[in-house]
Amino acid sequence: MESKPTKFAIVAVVVITAVLSVSIFNESAPTAFGIEQVITDNNDVRYLHVKQFIAHQELPNEFWIKSDEQGRVAKARYYLPVTEDGVKLITWTPERTEIWFKTKRGFRIGKFKRAEEWMQSILEQCQPKLVMKKLLEEQKAGVVDVNTSKPQNKQEPATIIATYKSKAKKEIYYINQETDLITHIEFYSIENGQDTLISTTKFYDYNVPIDEKMFSLKDEVPKDIEAVNQLEQLIGIPQGGMTEKEAAAETVRQFFQAMIDKDYKKAGQIYSGISEEKMRELFEGKLNVTAIISIGAPMPSPQHGQHAFKVPCKLEVADTNGNKTAWEPYGPFTRSGDDEVHPDRWIIVGGV
After folding, report:
1. Please, which pLDDT band fits residue 56 given cuts at 50, 70 and 90?
2. pLDDT at residue 179, rounded to an integer
3. Are residues 326 and 286 in the same domain?
4. pLDDT number for residue 231
5. What is the mean pLDDT of residues 12-25?
6. Residue 116: helix, strand or coil by DSSP?
7. Which of 144, 239, 298, 303 could make an SS bond with 344 (beta carbons 3.0 to 4.6 A apart)?
8. CB count, 10 Å around CB of 236?
9. Does residue 197 share a domain with residue 96?
10. Structural domain harbouring 268
11. Domain boundary among 163, 183, 204
12. 277 and 146 together in one domain
């Protein structure tokens, strides 16, 4: 899918001189020289393929983005090899988001606003006019130092180096002098005067059309994986006036009470929203909870998400012969925020 980028209208020398506070070819120029032309030039990117290489992560994050005529993200697909839920493949449109949890073998359908904001940010990072507008504003505000370089050898990339004054970070933008496009960005942290590479974002396939089938997972997810459709149901329980820890504990209590009552519909609604039939398949005849002995104090579990907790508990369970014993599950783990339309809903995400 990688191909040589097509040429756009913005000229690299205009882009670079837009924030000139240093010398190019030993000639200085006012900071705002050419910025109006850069900002008003039409540099539409309708299709984009992106790879994000994270330090200490074996495989890159990968994104395919389609935008509309106004430069807003219209559709997106992205592959995340490392998340709190394992490997994910996601497609997004304003009306529908599909998430295939490859590691956990789950499939969720819902609406997720944060995905749009993230994809829009990636789309804008590749466009010189938008990058330069942002850097110029930050330079005028005194929050960033900008240095540029434009080698005479056209085979070498031009660079824009943005070093932040109040934040320990630096960004380096590389521009192909033949195509006038940003090819990649390096993101650094700065500690004790030393730069450490955090990630590299590389842009491919500018304006190479993306097959519409890429923006839906319906033909890719295995048939034996059940879809949890959050557009059609509310998952979990509401936090209401409870604190996060209280809500986490109450989520666990209600889940196991539903298991005691053999209410697999309610248990499934709390267990990430899976169906009553799937709950029966997973637990009926395998986990027979007869009583809740105790529920301990929830402990933060950041590896499961921003608002996630492990809730230690002790349960009474019975085997097929009716013999009862005490059992302490590995988790369970609970969190809120999976349903962005109803972010106060808490669910069980594993550890049972």
Report:
1. very high
2. 82
3. yes
4. 84
5. 32
6. helix
7. 239
8. 26
9. yes
10. 235-350
11. 204
12. no
In order, the DSSP letters of 314-336 are EEEEE-TT--EEEE--S--EEEE
Q: 15 CB contacts (<8 Å, ≥6 apart)?
A: 38, 128, 129, 132, 158, 160, 175, 180
Pairing of strands 333-336, 345-350: antiparallel
d(CA 91, CA 86): 16
Strand bridging mode 289-295 / 237-238: unpaired
The pLDDT tens digits for 178-221 are 888 899 999 999 988 899 999 999 999 999 999 999 999 989 99
Q: Are residues 194 and 290 in the same domain?
A: no
In this structure, the dihedral spanned by the alpha carbons of residues 269, 272, 274 and 276, taken in order and rounded to 10 degrees, is: -40
Q: What is the pLDDT of residue 133?
A: 86
Q: Which residue, of 189, 204, 219, is where some domain finishes? A: 204
Given this model, what pLDDT does residue 43 score?
56
Domain count, the chain: 2
pLDDT over 90 (residue 61): yes
pTM of the complete model: 0.69
Query: 254 phi and psi, to 5 degrees?
Result: -65, -35
Q: Which two tokens stand for residue 24?
A: 């190019």
* CB-CB contact of 176 with 159 (8 Å): no
Residues 244 and 172 in one domain: no
C-alpha gyration radius of the chain:
25
Asked whether residue 259 falls in the same domain as residue 174, the answer is: no
Same domain, 183 and 122: yes
* Sheet bearing 237-238, strands edge to edge: 237-238, 345-350, 333-336, 308-310, 299-300
264, burial (CB in 10 Å: exposed 0-12, middle 13-18, buried 19+): buried
Instruction: In whole angstroms, give the CA distance from residue 51 to residue 46.
Output: 17
CA distance 53 to 196: 14
What letter would DSSP give residue 27? B
Asked if the structure places residue 220 within a domain, the reply is: no
Could you give the angle at the alpha carbon of 197 between the alpha carbons of 193 and 198, nearest 5°? 115
Binned at pLDDT 50, 70 and 90, residue 33 comes out as: very low
